[in-house]
Amino acid sequence: MNQPSVTAAPLSDSVGRALEVSLRGADELLPRAEWVQKLQQSEASGVPLRIKLGLDPTAPDIHFGHTVVLNKMRQLQDLGHTVIFLIGDFTSTIGDPSGRNSTRPPLTREQIEANAQTYYRQASLVLDPARTEVRYNSEWCDALGSRGMIQLAAKYTVARMMERDDFSKRFAAGQSISVHEFLYPLMQGYDSVALKSDLELGGTDQKFNLLMGRHLQAEYGQPPQCVLTMPLLEGLDGVDKMSKSKNNYIGISEEPNTMFAKVLSISDTLMWRWYTLLSFRTIAEIEALQAEVAAGRNPKDAKVALAKELTTRFHSAAAADAAELDFQQRSKGGVPDEIPEVTLSGAPLGIGQLLKQAGLAPSTSEANRLLDGGGVRVDSAVVSDKGLKLPAGTYVVQVGKRKFAKVTLG
């Protein structure tokens, strides 16, 4: 990111540190010079800056990809600034068209309320709840009413709206664009007016919406906010962005053992990207660790440290220690101390049906695929015979490296 020098005058230590924290892992900071000025004004006045992040509760759970911007909020929060966690309960009823090639179905009020209940609880695993301002944009959006909505819509042109990449592509392709979709960036921008934000964070796919906030604040006579976009985190495959639909994600509410093992499954190259975007270690500490690995230290040591840090954050240090021990046992072929216990009937039962009924495979066809690949063990012995029928008894069944169950078959 090549940006010009922001000021001829030297920055104070605290402003320089705040700028360094702001830029860590970021994609763009716009306009950088204005952000430096805001930091300097805050230092001179002692008044913290207002930093906004809005999330629409379109799903009940948050994964590691969502925490990239939450981590940045926490870093700025630790510098003494006010962070605003905005739950878009109103904008969720419109549906964010960002990156979409079709109209997003709006959520019902019941769906939004159910999802919102878990959002802040999960976000609080990253943010400091005692220093976080939680708001819902229905506070001011509902109050706008029809007249206010028309007045707001008058502050932006259709031509400017069609400059937005996803809208222009859909229009050129003859795909429908509903009029209500134009309201989404307007309403997100109006959130910045209502909150008088100094900085808004978001993913790179939110740049248009974030800049809308700057435009509308100027229209309403406010100092325009700065914009900080964060990259979209690559998932476990190291290729596509983390997504539940691609099954390359780690949910922050996943079990500690699963979370730990999934972090260890990423590549050595991707590990450093995750360190930058997910770890709370300083850049100096990360660079020192990289130097140790370059000098011959096993990269797995660094990966274990990252897995323990993240598992501790979302669970506890004790859970992270237990997860590490569990992973070591599994990698050596051992059975964890605590595994699910399942009672089934119908002996003798085919191995494919047993795997399905015990929850170790989603279907018998998937069970057969696992058997063909040598990924199934019964009492530590590899099973490849798809015709195997197990008599009544108790068995320790293992699928892959991480799935175990003690199955009592009657």
Automatic annotation (TrEMBL):
State which Enzyme Commission number(s) the record gives.
6.1.1.1
State a single Gene Ontology molecular function. Answer: RNA binding
Which parts of the sequence form the motif 'KMSKS' region? 241-245
At the top level, the lineage of the source is: Bacteria
Domain RNA-binding S4, chain residue ranges per copy: 349-410
Q: Which Pfam families match?
A: S4 (PF01479), tRNA-synt_1b (PF00579)
Specify where it is mainly localized.
cytoplasm
Catalytic activity, as annotated:
tRNA(Tyr) + L-tyrosine + ATP = L-tyrosyl-tRNA(Tyr) + AMP + diphosphate + H(+)
Q: Which GO terms describe its biological process?
A: tyrosyl-tRNA aminoacylation
Instruction: Give the UniProt entry's GO cellular component terms.
Output: cytosol
Sequence positions that bind ATP: K244
Q: Which UniProt keywords apply?
A: Aminoacyl-tRNA synthetase, ATP-binding, Cytoplasm, Ligase, Nucleotide-binding, Protein biosynthesis, RNA-binding
Enzyme kind, highest EC tier = ligase
- Describe the family membership recorded for this protein in Swiss-Prot or TrEMBL: Belongs to the class-I aminoacyl-tRNA synthetase family. TyrS type 2 subfamily.
Quaternary organization: Homodimer.
What role is this protein assigned? Catalyzes the attachment of tyrosine to tRNA(Tyr) in a two-step reaction: tyrosine is first activated by ATP to form Tyr-AMP and then transferred to the acceptor end of tRNA(Tyr).
Q: Which NCBIfam families match?
A: tyrS
- The protein's name is Tyrosine--tRNA ligase
The record lists the organism as Xylophilus rhododendri
